[in-house]
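lol so apparently i was supposed to do this last week
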Amino acid sequence: MNKEVRLIENFVSWQGEGPDSGRTMIILRFKTCNLKCPWCDTSVKMRISAEAPYKLSDIQRTILDRKAGILITGGEPTVKKHFNETVSLLNELRYPIANVESNGHNLRELISEVDLSQSVKFIYSPKIFNSEDIDKSIEILEQIKGYDRVYVKVVYDGSDYVYEFLKILSKEEDLLWNQRIWLMPEGTNRVDLIKNSEKTFDLCEKFKFNFSSRSHIIFGFI
Ligand code: SF4
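anyway here it is w/ iron/sulfur cluster bound
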């Protein structure tokens, strides 16, 4: 527990998106990402925030004091630089719940390293900007969808590529599969999110997916 991880954020808040939206979580944010998404809502933080070391024992104390889960996010928790620290957080801490948010980069490798006796959700958030991204995302999904701890969270930005991907996603016949998919509106501010929600709700209805708001942006708590 004397081990340290290097993060750009470590504070208690609430999960703003996806299956555990609204739960109290310690937000543990890594600095580096392998992608540069045009609508990234953390790109400025990643660029300007300095990393600092945090002891696992201190994070454990906060989990116990605040009765909080942990949200491991970024950046991308599975890039080489952060991979071992992510494994340490998940395997060495004791927590009521953990979420790991990933663009899929090394997600299968991460799942295979994690002790699944605790309540961990791996939230795969594919980033789709062209047809190659669709193929790559489907390939990743095929590798990880057999794990019932895997959830999918997709930002609908109005693009035909994302629509095409959703169509493919919706073809699975397993009812439980649809229950593991969340669709979210694009937007880095409250006004855009609300404006873009209508189309997102329509697609949730069409493809039978769950809708996720992005409460941290709407209410400004992260
Ligand atoms: S994968 Fe996530 S953190 Fe990385 S650039 Fe895209 S939105 Fe930002």
